[in-house]
Amino acid sequence: MGCEKLLRLPDTMDFSLCTNIGSMCYRCLALTDFQYKLDIDYSAKTASEGIKESSTCFYFCTNLKRLSFGKCRKYNSLVEMCPFLEEINIDDFMGTTSNVLASADLFRVTKIGGELKGFNKSATLSIMRRLSHDAILNIFNALEDVTEEATKPTITFGTEALRTLTPDEKLIATNKGWKIA
Questions:
Q1: Full-model pTM
Q2: CA geometry: angle at 75 spanning 65 and 5, to 5°?
Q3: What is the SS3 string spanning 38-91?
Q4: How many CB atoms lie within 10 A of CB 29?
């Protein structure tokens, strides 16, 4: 059982020697915000290379609204059962967008921000029915150019999101070699 009264973490926390944040905020029912520039990289061997383990870090944080990270190579149930999550900020997906944005609990997300580097794999965002037009354009602008690849990645949105896009806005993604569904 997690801390049911923890509203937020301190403004400064030193994660420099940390390799495991698994279950760190598990069932922190009152937590609404987590904004640290952590590097999560399952291939890390030392703390200086990033956090290796993050599974269930935010599992069942039912009031979590904002989540920000630095680099994120892989999430393993990092964000599950967080039904009020509205904003995700990630600086570098490190090629794992499908893992990061796959949770069925992301249906309230309206904003995806951060630098969004490393967005180079297919991703299904159709569960994000409330994703804002600006968030979609942020994603399109961050997509890596894959025109040289034999298999074109696909980015999938719900029909509501697709209706908000103009043909010129869709060209941002398709000119980089992406399929939009």
A1: 0.78
A2: 35
A3: CCECCCCCCHHHCECECCCCCCCCCCCCEEEEEEECCCCCCCCCCCCCCEEEEE
A4: 15
pLDDT > 70: percent of the chain = 79
- Tokens linked to 65: 């609204």
| 7 CB-contact burial (10 Å; exposed 0-12 / middle 13-18 / buried 19+) | exposed
Burial 123-157 (b: 16+ CB within 10 A, else e): bbbbbbbebeeebbebbbebbbeeeeeeeebebeb
User: How many whole angstroms separate alpha carbon 28 and alpha carbon 99?
Assistant: 23
Q: Residues 6 or more apart from 108 whose CB is under 8 A from it?
A: 83, 84, 85, 86, 130
Closest CA to 58 of 15, 92, 100, 113: 100
- Residue by residue, DSSP assigns 84-114 as T--EEEEEE-TT-HHHHT--TT-TT--EEES
For residue 158 the two structure tokens come to 């719900």
Q: What pLDDT was estimated at residue 134? A: 92
Which H/E stretch holds residue 123? strand 123-124
Which tens digit of pLDDT belongs to each residue from 67-77? 887 776 656 66
- Tell me 35's DSSP state: E
| Token pair in block for residue 54 | 């993050």
**Residues 86-121: tens digit of each pLDDT:** 998 877 766 555 555 656 567 888 888 888 777 788
